[in-house]
Design a protein that fits this description.
Layout: E1 11-12, E2 16-17, H1 22-25, E3 42-49, E4 52-66, E5 69-80, H2 82-85, E6 90-99, E7 105-114, E8 117-126, E9 131-137, E10 143-149, E11 155-156, H3 157-163, E12 174-181, E13 184-200, E14 204-214, E15 226-232, E16 239-245, E17 250-259, H4 265-268
Amino acid sequence: MKGIRIFIAVCFFGTVCIPLSANEAEAPPKPEVDLPFPIGEVLEYGLFWGWIGVGTSVAETRWELRDNRWYIVIQFQTRTNHVLRRLYPVEDHVETWIDAETQRPVEFTTVLQAGRHYRNEKTTFDWERNQAVYERFHEDGRVETKTYEIQDNARDLVSFMYFMRNKDLPPDSSFEYEVVVNDKLYELEVNTKGVERVNLRNYGRIDSIRIDPRASFEGVFVRRGEMSVWVSEDPRRILTKLEVDTPFASVKILLRNVRGPGDDFWIRQAEPE
């Protein structure tokens, strides 16, 4: 299983005021961008092995300022709960940085810890040369590096998932995309099925489009197996459910809560913190 900080000085009621640093005070305004997802959105998922709850995964979006330029950051954090932690602990952190003006990924990092399996990797996108620079950091200090060519529309897996949220996905259709995973560029085939209802604890039965992606690489939530995902049919296009059949068991991910800005159905029905 696998699994997605700006410090803002604020004044509370005129009584407590923290001054801005020079870097923050001189920061350019955030660009106005048209995104298929809100900044500040937090999606909370439960992970199940068969019918046993074994962990959680949280995906969130935020602004980050680096070198006087604004970036959109999408972060996934996945970890096992006390039921599985002693047998097979999982602690995964996956993060992508996207240039807010071009809306292209600039950096994709993964730190994956599952049992004795450990990976620490970073892919940097060089759009001037249309290249990706992949680095793998070993525990003994060694660093593997590989540079390879990419297409103008190439994305890492996380930014691909989020920017697909504004795409029309008619039933019984097939689409092909290129995604960057680890040190290679992969073909990803997206096959849409019909609309099915996904039963969610806090939201009831949600009409969701079923999608069967086909690829030979490891994913964000799970590492191997035949996968199906369900995406809500409303304008948010939120991942509501994911199922993977592995040689050992059926792995399931179900949406629990949606937090962040807005006042739509997802926010109103969210479980109180």
